[in-house]
Amino acid sequence: MQSAIDTHVYVIYFFLAIMLFNLYSVLTQKEFIRLAKRLRAMTPLYHVTNAIVIYTGAIVAFYAHVMSVTIFLMIPASIFLLVIEIKRYKKMRVIKFEQVELQKEFYAYAKKIYIIEISVIVSIYIISKVF
């Protein structure tokens, strides 16, 4: 059981590292096309890691036969992270090279999205330690 929990926690750390890398990319990459390519390359890794987090979390929860408040918060949090990342990708995908104003808006939007994602992970971690 402990190895399943350890795997779940390490995958969450990796998931958080992906979010931090994406936020770092948004903050440092000033050329939109390069940013779009980098984020497009990271999107499948982001979703696979989120799926692994959900899967390992389900295994741990069902194996322990415990449904706590924390677990009930983790499920919608994972779905929320999935949905807002899809929305971010869809918004980025339609921006053309000559649409400079939309590119500037996207930088602010992506920055907010990644800060929200990181906040959700940190909040769930804090709640899991409290309860």
Give the biggest beta sheet: none
Radius of gyration of CA atoms, rounded to a whole number: 16 Å
Helix vs. strand class: mainly alpha
Give the count of helical stretches.
4
Order of SSEs, N→C?
HHHH
In terms of per-residue confidence, which ranges show pLDDT below 50 for 5 or more consecutive residues? none
Q: Could you tell me the strand content as a percent range?
A: under 5%
End-to-end distance = 19 Å
User: Averaging pLDDT over every residue, what do you get?
Assistant: 94
Q: What is the tally of beta strands?
A: 0
Describe this structure in words.
Helix content is 89%, strand content 0%. α2 packs antiparallel against α3. The longest helix is centred in the middle third of the chain and has 33 residues, at 32-64. The chain has helices at 2-28, 32-64, 69-93, 100-130. The protein is built from four helices and no strands. The two termini are 19 Å apart. With 131 residues, it is an all-alpha fold.
Secondary structure layout:
Layout: H1 2-28, H2 32-64, H3 69-93, H4 100-130
Write a brief caption for the model:
The protein is mainly α.
Keywords:
single chain, 131 residues, mainly alpha
